Amino acid sequence: MIPTFSSRINQEPTSLDALFALSGRADLISFAGGYPDPALFPKKELNNAFENRIKNASTEIFQYRSVLGYEPLRQKIANYAKTTGTTCSPENIMLTQGAQQGIKLLADLFLDDFDGVVVEAPTYIGGLEAFNEHKPTYYEVPMEDDGMNMDVLAETLEENDVKLIYTIPNFQNPTGYCMSVEKRKQLAELASKYNVIVIEDDPYRELRYIGNSLPSIKSFDLTENVVTLGSFSKILSPALRCGWLIGAKDIINQLSSLRLSYDCQSSNILLEGIDEYLEHNDIATHITKLRTAYRQKMNAMLSGLSENLPVECSFSKPQGGFFIWVNLPESLDARKLLNKTKKVAFLEGSSLFATSKEANHLRLNFTGITEKQIEEGCIDLGNTIKNALLALAI
């Protein structure tokens, strides 16, 4: 008989399990998962890059290397970081198995059981899953359309012992909101004042469809309290599983030792293939193509929601990213609606609140489906909500 599993392990299906299951259902139009459009993957260019690099590289490409990852690729990321206002060297960068691994590594490095963690309300489900193993004491800070409420954050830090603040400043998952420059400055100042680590999770930065790019929170960091995460998943391909972590050298050194018990390092072949792609292709041109396509899809969903949702509902109007956040009347439970829709799947919002578990919200993704599917899905979603409100009125 199998021995008892560790008490640290959640033996029930997680919210992430449910999300991937919903996103994989072929019988539904999926607004659920945060999937890029596969038609926009640079398949030919990536194929050529991997083929050429493997063909021309030395046998060292198949050998163990630094836990930090391929240095020329880290140098390219350091150069890119300068465009966000962040000055760093390759020694400040660790290449990770997606940004998700970066969150998990930082959680394991800093958190003891019951330590205080500040999260946005709502927040990214994968962030919560990474923290949950440590049984954190969560402190929710409400989201506003220009980022988390800084007054509530300052009060929370003044009154409680907090180790980590987790934020997604650009086109937040799930709301789509973007943190203002002023709030980015305030957050960096508060982190320094209260000696708290900020995890700046920034996978959507390049996917801005309206307005100008804003400096990173890290660019305002004076005491090395901010760690920034980035990813190729949303701009090249999720299957590459390549992200990066930018932080103080002391943090990177400790993470290097910790990671040796995980996977030792990212795949050299993958890292060199990505480096080859960046050497011989203009990624800015590719990102422009993504922005054009996703802007059209976002506008299609915003129009579809405006035309089909009842007036009792409201929704975010993002300037970029992957998601739109829908607020239902308090009398409706998004989990129950999910069982009543005929054509569409979405991510119900209660699992995205660490403690309050607010049930009258849902997250919609517009990037991974066609404009026709968006139109059909918005009609079905609108009818489902209207029918639910009628049923309550009877």
Give a description of the structure.
The model has no long low-confidence stretch (mean pLDDT 94). It contains twelve helices and 14 strands. It starts with 14 loop residues before the first helix and ends with a helix. It has an eight-stranded mixed sheet, sandwiched between helices. The protein has 394 residues and is of the alpha/beta class. The radius of gyration is 21 Å and the shape is globular. The protein is 40% helix and 14% strand.
Helix content bin: 40-55%
Strand portion, in percent?
A: 5-15%
The gross shape turns out to be globular
- Summed over residues and divided by their number, the pLDDT gives a mean of 94
Task: Compute the number of helices.
Answer: 12
List its traits.
40% helix, globular, 14% strand, eight-stranded mixed beta sheet
Short description:
The chain has helices spanning 15-23, 43-56, 71-82, 98-110, 125-132, 150-159, 181-194, 249-259, 268-280, 283-308, 334-338, 371-393; strands at residues 29-30, 93-96, 116-121, 137-144, 147-148, 164-167, 197-201, 226-231, 243-246, 314-315, 323-327, 344-345, 347-348, 361-365. It is α/β, with parallel strands linked by helices and 394 residues long.
